[in-house]
């Protein structure tokens, strides 16, 4: 099934945004050299990094769900 250009751009944006969140999470959680304090002895930046990574993985899952929805044969057809 050939996808229209708008759907390809939408899917590409979803994937790029997901990887941007994952990259940001890795940077904030593991490579940043600033401190926002700690919570139960764990730096808050680590918690924020993990949160960004999890949100990026969620966005990857949503992009996959969107792609699976596009591949259905009855896309755009409704029952009467």
Quote the beta fraction: 5-15%
Radius of gyration based on Cα positions: 18 Å
Structural class by sheet pairing and helices: mainly alpha
Task: Measure the end-to-end span.
Answer: 24 Å
The helix count comes to 2
Helix amount: 55-70%
Cross-sheet strand order for the largest sheet: 1-2
Instruction: Give the overall shape.
Output: elongated
Helix-strand sequence: HEEH
Number of strands: 2
Low-confidence stretches: none
Mean pLDDT: 88
Please outline what is shown here.
This protein is 68% helix and 5% strand. It has 80 residues and is mainly alpha-helical.
Plain-language structure description:
This protein is mainly α. It has 2 helices and 2 strands; from the N terminus they run αββα. The chain has helices at 5-31, 44-70; strands spanning 38-39, 42-43. It has a two-stranded antiparallel sheet with strand order 1-2. Helix 1 (5-31) packs antiparallel against helix 2 (44-70). The longest helix is centred in the N-terminal third of the chain and has 27 residues, at 5-31. The chain is elongated, with a radius of gyration of 18 Å. The model has no long low-confidence stretch (mean pLDDT 88).
